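Quick question, first post here. What does this chain look like in 3D?
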Amino acid sequence: MQITLKNANELGALVRLARKAQNIRQDDAAGSIGVSENFLGKVERGSESVQWGKLFQVLDGLGLRLIVDLPDEVESLPGAHDA
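> Answer (accepted):
Ran it through. Tokens below.
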């Protein structure tokens, strides 16, 4: 399923939903992912001051992928295929 997100709150809600769907408590998820429970709570609340590297660690740990849909014009720019 693909969902279009508009802000950090929407991403946080999906992270919480994914964790709960897997029947994992927040403290257990944080421990197995390698982040603090406080950090995971910030992600789930949609805090806009989270560290990108740790955010991607949480997404990966819960089996979530972040896909960016780029406009066609970007494909012709130098470096567009390097990511």
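Helices lie at 8-21, 26-33, 37-44, 52-61.
The chain has one domain: 8-67.
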